Amino acid sequence: MGDVVLQTATINWLRSLLGKEARFSFVTSKEFSSLLDTHPEVSHVISFDRRGGEQWKDLVKKIDELDRREPIDLILDLHATLRSFRLKLSFWTIPSLTVDKRRWERFFLTKIKSVRIKRLFDRKIFGLEPQVERILKDFESLFLDLRAKRRTVDFRHGPHEELTSLAELPVYPVPAPYVVLAPSASFLYKRWPVEYFVELARKLFQETNLNLVVLAGPDDKFCEVFNEIQSERFFNLQGKTSLKESMSVLAHAKLCIGNDSGMNHIAEAYGVPCVTIFGPTDPRFGFAPHGSKSRYLSKEMFCKPCSTTGKTPCYRDRLYCMEEISVKEVLSVSQDILRTL
Ligand code: SF4
Question: Is residue 144's pLDDT more than 80?
Answer without folding.
Answer: no
